[in-house]
Design brief:
Number of strands: 7
Distance between the termini: 26 Å
Structural class: alpha+beta
Shape: globular
Strand order of the largest sheet: 1-2-3-4-5-7-6
Length: 209
Amino acid sequence: SALLYERQLLLDALTQDPMQQLVDHKVDVERLKKLLNVISCDRVVTYEGFSSIKAVVQFRKDAVMNDVDSYIQLGFEYERGPMQQNHVVRNDITDKGKGTYIKYRIDFNIDHQQKHPLLNVECWAQGEAPSVEPAVPLDGWDDMEEEDDENQMKILKEDDLQNGRIAKEDMEDVDEDIADRFAAYIDPEIMDSLLHSLGVKMEEGSMFF
């Protein structure tokens, strides 16, 4: 019953379309809603301020899908908690015992095949709430290799991200001492593969939602 409830929440979100990203894709959305099932969903909250959500959503194969035997699966992972040493972007944040780390990740796979990283977002905040300053993007994920993304991200965190390199040179007006940092990566080839497998045509904004 818990998974049915989670499924209904997803269906309601797609129906309500709060960002109005799916207005031109009603037929595709209604089709995918009929195929959608929540396979697992685990939520964790601790007294230390850590929280996480891990979920797996599956779309059963229908006649419109391409190169699929049984299903298409999306894995979602969200984490939020106090910043730890392996999350550090600026050494002074960890030294003062402050900061919040947030990670959001989506993986994609067909049937029992290998999982591919579709989306990765990591955020580093100096407090428990977002900064009033515009968030500063960090450089370094452009060359992330699909087959070794975990090791690649670890290297980038230790080398590039700890140095707090700013991806855009026109950020002079941002107060870097209080601005949040973020790094985001989306693989356009994996996104195109997902769209092709699902048998839908959507612009990036609609598909991202």
